[in-house]
Design goal:
This is Type IX secretion system protein PorV domain-containing protein. About 5% of the residues have low confidence. Strand 3 and strand 4 form a beta hairpin. The protein is mainly beta and about 300 residues long. It is built from three helices and 18 strands.
Length: about 300
């Protein structure tokens, strides 16, 4: 019960911080809201209570301590309207010290058509967003872990650029019975970015989730639910399910309720042991109506 009360206190504090942060400026840098890792995205982005692979640097840094191997992950995302999104991360577990992680995020807007105030065509230009993240996680108790991530963010549009700093802080509780996990995380809080005289707020998000691993003979079923509150937006719910056969093949599905970033998701994962390491290949699909479809492919290596 003490853990549950602590979790509720943390959530209340996070919501209070978010409310205070919402009073000034305009929200931008929406690339920070795009989910990473084809496994998590195939499950409808209901991953804050799992966060047990190298994509956890994004979802909930508290989960990194659950990964007891070295693990690297690369994701390529063919995003909407010709944009693309790349994510590269790695984590290392040191038993007495905890787990450390690093991630690089790059969002490429491609070539953009330049126009003056009268609509006349000018020189085309490019734009991108970039983030470098450093994470640390450790167990506070056998069933309770905490983690933190610090980020340096840079955004460039034509000749103008801005730099800012942000952080995530999360907790993960395993219990009160085997297979149940509860996670909470405050994402993207920080200074915002300044372009010339305009300050752009970070899309601060409070996220909480619950999942349960249900072993059924050769199959593990993992249903998961996330509830999130983004800055300047309503509450949203993400629902996901993974069916894992002998830790070799996984089928995934999910649905994002009231989300501007799609509804139905689906995915597939394969794990193959090769010599001393595991190769993980994952794919996720997301539909976005008239905007098109998103295709994510992740390649992971654990050893």
């Amino acid at each position: 019960m003490k853990i549950i009360r602590l979790l509720l206190t943390i959530v209340s504090l996070c919501l209070f911080i978010q409310t205070a942060y919402a009073q000034v400026g305009t929200t931008g840098l929406q690339f920070l809201q795009i989910g990473v890792g084809a496994r998590a995205c195939g499950m409808g982005e209901a991953f804050s209570s799992l966060s047990d692979d190298a994509s956890g640097i994004y979802w909930n840094p508290a989960g990194l301590v659950l990964v007891e191997q070295k693990e690297f992950l690369f994701m390529h995302n063919e995003w909407l309207e010709g944009t693309r999104y790349e994510f590269l991360s790695g984590i290392i577990h040191l038993s007495k010290l905890g787990s450390f992680g690093v991630a690089l995020t790059y969002f490429d807007y491609g070539e953009m058509e330049g126009r003056d105030e009268f609509g006349h065509h000018m020189v085309d230009f490019s734009a991108y967003d970039f983030a470098l993240s450093l994470s640390y996680s450790r167990k506070i108790k056998d069933d309770f872990s905490a983690g933190i991530t610090g980020k340096i963010i840079q955004s460039k549009i034509e000749t103008e650029s801005g730099t800012g700093f942000a952080g995530d802080i999360g907790v993960l509780y395993q219990g009160p019975f085997n297979g149940l996990q509860i996670g909470f995380v405050l994402q993207h809080f920080g200074t915002g970015l300044k372009y010339v005289d305009e300050v752009t707020k970070l899309p601060m998000t409070v996220r909480g989730g619950i999942s349960y691993t249900l072993p059924l003979n050769m199959i593990n079923l993992i249903p998961a639910v996330d509830v999130l509150k983004e800055l300047d937006a309503d509450y949203k719910t993400n629902i996901g399910l993974e069916a894992n056969l002998m830790n070799r093949i996984a089928l995934r599905g999910g649905y994002k309720v009231k989300s501007s970033q799609g509804g139905m998701t689906a995915g597939l994962g394969i794990v193959q042991k090769i010599s001393f390491f595991q190769l993980k290949i994952d794919y996720a699909y997301g539909g976005y109506g008239d905007l098109g479809n998103s295709h994510r492919v992740s390649l992971g290596v654990a050893f």
